[in-house]
Amino acid sequence: MTTKKKYPEKWTELNPGCMVFEAGSAKAHKTGSWKAQHPVWDNRKCIKCGVCYIYCPEACVSRTEEGYYAADLEYCKGCGICAHECWPGAIEMKEEEV
Amino acid sequence: MAKRVGMEVAIAAAEAVALCRIDVAAVYPITPNTHIAEHLAEIVADGKLDAEYITVESEHSSISACCGASGAGARAYTATSSQGLMLMHEILPIVSAMRLPVVMGLANRAVSGPLNIWNDHSDIMPQRDSGWISFFAENGQEAVDMSIQSFRIAEDPEVMLPIVLNIDGFQLTHMIEALELPSQKEVDRYLPPFRPLATLHPDKPVSMGAYAFPDIFTEVMKVKDSVLIDSKKTILKAWDEWGKQFGRWYKPVETYKADGAEVLIMTMGSMGETASIAVDELRAKGVPAGLVKLRLWRPFPFEEFREAIKGAKVLIVCDRAVSFGGPGGPVAAEVKSALYNDAGRPAVLNFLIGLGGRDVTVENFKDILEKGVQAINKKPAGGYIFYGVRE
Ligand code: SF4
Ligand code: SF4
Question: Does the domain made of B253-386 have the CATH classification 3.20.20.10?
Answer without folding.
Answer: no
